[in-house]
Amino acid sequence: MGLDISYHSNIDLKNPCTDRDSADVYLFPNDMIFGQSDGIKGGEYSCDGESGSFRAGSYSGYNSWRRSLAELIGYDYDTVIEMIQKSLKRTESLNEVLGESESPEIRIPFVELLFFSDCEGFIGPVTSAKLAKDFAEWEEKAKKDDHFYGRYKEWKKAFETASEGGCVSFH
User: Fold this and answer.
1) Cα angle at 36 between 83 and 112, to 5 degrees?
2) How many CA atoms lie within 13 A of 5 on its CB side?
3) Hey, CA dihedral for 49, 50, 51, 55, is it positive or negative?
4) Which of 104, 151, 161, 165 has the least C-beta neighbours within 10 A?
5) What's the number of CA atoms in the CB half-sphere (13 Å) around residue 8?
6) How far apart, in whole angstroms, are the C-alpha atoms of residue 89 and residue 103?
């Protein structure tokens, strides 16, 4: 068992399929705290854009890769998760816990991926665009480790594609 990723662009999000046979993708929202599904309802949809998939690895392998992703941006993965959980238990936002209370948005790159299910759900087009930007901004530093970078490029392609009216689906 492990984690598989599929990604799509141009999903017809306004018209969920009523016939399972005509659906190209099934979306199951699994938002944690960042609203990664971008308000898209779960269900079956058709897609007339680009699609692709890849194996993210075993669950432990994927989580090891996420740890490396956190390290790439200068964070310890467990510390990031602890800060997020701490913000959930208090009235402060995550930005305030991080000491960034003036910012209207969270500044940790990749946070929507770092704090997302490792087994199911999807990330919608708006969040995918933000993550695609993060992947583009950190790419040069990611190139320093060939094994890590191979997987990095797959994720980058997935989020770039999904940012065009689609999603990245975890299953």
Assistant:
1) 35
2) 23
3) negative
4) 104
5) 21
6) 20
- Beta carbons within 8 Å of 2's beta carbon, 6+ residues apart: 55, 56, 57, 58, 59, 61, 62
DSSP assignment string, 138-157: HHHHHTTSHHHHHHHHHHHH
CA angle 161, 66, 169 (to 5 degrees): 35
- Which residues in 43-68 are b (16+ Cβ under 10 Å) and which e? ebbbbebebeebebbeeeebeebbbb
Predicted TM-score (pTM) of this structure: 0.88
| d(C-alpha 155, C-alpha 109), whole Å | 14
pLDDT tens by residue, 94-126: 555 555 555 445 578 999 999 898 889 999 999
Among candidate residues 66, 47, 48, 70, the one with its CA nearest the CA of residue 57: 66
Structure tokens at 123: 């990330």
Each domain of the chain, given as residue ranges in start order, spans 3-170
